[in-house]
Amino acid sequence: MTRLRNIGPEGHILAIGHLLFAGLFVLASIHHVERCIHVDSANQIFKWVQLDGVEVEAYRFAAIFPQLIVKVVRLFSVDLNTLLWVASVAHVLVPYIIFVLTAHVFRTPWIAAGCALAAVLCTRLTFYGIVLEANYLLCYPFLLAGVIHGPLRKGATAGTLLILALALFLVLAVHPVGFLVALFVIVLLWPRLPEQRTILVILGSVTVLWGGLARFLLPPSGYESGLYTAAAEGLDQVHRVSKLPSFDFLVGHTWHYTTHYLPLWALLVVLSVLLIRRRDIRVLAITWAGVVGYTALNVFTYHAGETAMMMEKNFLPLATLVALPLLLAVGDLRSRWQSWAAVAFLAVSFIQFRGISFASKPARERVMKISALVSEVRARGVRKAVVLERTLDDGGLHIHWALAFETMLYSAREGAESCVTVISSTDPPVIPPGKNVELSPFDARFHASDLDKRYFQLPETAYVLIPDLDAGHLR
User: What is the 3-state secondary structure of 70-139?
Assistant: First the structure.
């Protein structure tokens, strides 16, 4: 007990942070199938296992680290189920490494605590959408903040500047709105580093230039281009903002459908009170400008609505915009108040962690439907099947574009020779005969003859249409 008292409030909060990440590792391990065999995740992880080299999706260069870990483990020819487990755990390992670096290497414990809090503050369904790049905006900005507030504060050595450049690149190159979050971090820390203003001006200038030029240097995908158009269209909806699906999602999941965002807004109020009492109006203005601006951006961009997981993904960075200034403010408090903050930190972490655990249900239900679909196809002696979309929808299995990869990954876990793939079709399709039939109509790189036989084995035959599949078997 004496030793626990001696480590102080910041030590207690860091200990809670370690325990929180340990819990996330456990969830990632238990639910590795649900996290990997889920639409976008299945599509990307299939390519990590199947293809040589590194796959960079839509120029998101900074999102490759879990993939690299999977590629390294793949060199040892481990089974597919192990690779799926590695992919799931690796997506928790990346933020945990940043937590450890900021806490114990850069010696910025309050920024590390913010990283731990941000990992769960706005996360629920998105824990089961592991390849969504917005997840990295919950950790990379804290690495940037840790370098600025730690090593850079002590001196602008060549090594520090190199690490700083890398940290900034990670934030900028992981998501189109990364530059906004990076700019928030730089402006927020501006008052704390009067001796390094020149470096911060350079960082801010590079960030703004990236935000203005990246779209032209790195052409956006069709999906991303559609979001730019949607954002412009959303501005025409200002007069009816309270009726937009995106606004309803945010408000509804604060106190109507769930209370998922209630801790976020409560902590924002606590932060505001702390800053007002200290008369730190500058940081108060920066924080509210960031939160309100980012919220408005996503409310108008996604004014037409999205799936629940994608809607949650859009608001993930709000956790960073609140957790970082909040924990910096807590770090400035007296020890007695920091002790109370540690209690609140524990309570919020537990509540949000519990929500993440319960949110496994939709992902688990989808995997169960995929399992039932694979079993039904196998029962008919089919390895490459086409099923009508209306049948899948009637069975409660929606979003079909990655179904080929979901069914392959799920079935191949039992062995490469057990591999089955299913694609969907709106109308009865014309089934192409012969060899080298595409695995998915969206990617011509994957043919039965080209599959890595260690993990996936499919016959070089035509797909078989199953028009009479009973949707009731999927429920």
Answer: HHHHHCCCCCHHHHHHHHHHHHHHHHHHHHHHHHHHCCCHHHHHHHHHHHHHCCCHHHHCCCCHHHHHHC
Measured CA to CA in angstroms, residue 97 lies from 94, 101, 184 at distances of 5, 6, 22
The model's pTM: 0.94
Neighbours of 361 (CB within 10 A): 12
Asked if residue 310 lies in contact with residue 128, where contact means CB atoms within 8 angstroms, the answer is no
12 with 339: CB under 8 angstroms? yes
What stretches of 380-437 show up as alpha helix (H) in DSSP?
Answer: 389-394, 403-412
3-state SS string for 259-326? CCCHHHHHHHHHHHHHHHHCCCHHHHHHHHHHHHHHHHHHHHHCCCCCCHHHHHHHCCCHHHHHHHHH
What's the pLDDT band for 2 if we cut at 50, 70, 90? very low
- 443-447 and 438-440 beta bridge pairing: antiparallel
Q: Residue 3: is its pLDDT beyond 80?
A: no
* CA distance linking residue 46 with residue 60, whole number of Å: 18
Give Cα 147 to chain centroid, integer Å: 22
Q: Which of 153, 24, 38, 43 is nearest to 90 (CA)?
A: 24
Token output for 362: 């939709």
What are the b/e assignments for 422-458, b being 16+ CB within 10 Å?
Answer: bbbbeeeeeeeeeeebbbbeeeeebebeebeeebbbb
pLDDT tens readout for residues 268-298? 999 999 999 999 999 999 999 999 999 999 9
Residue 374 one-letter amino acid: V
Fill in the DSSP letter of residue 431: P
Strand partners, 464: 385
Which residues, at least 6 apart from 28, have a Cβ–Cβ distance to it below 8 Å? 35, 88, 89, 91, 92
**For residues 203 and 383, what is the distance between their CA atoms, to the nearest angstrom?**
54
Q: Are 148 and 189 in contact (CB under 8 A)?
A: yes
- In sequence order, the β-bridge partners of residue 465 are 386
Distance CA 33, CA 100 (A): 27
Q: Which residues contact 284 (CB under 8 A, 6 or more apart)?
A: 272, 275, 276
Domain boundaries defined on the chain = 2-358, 362-474
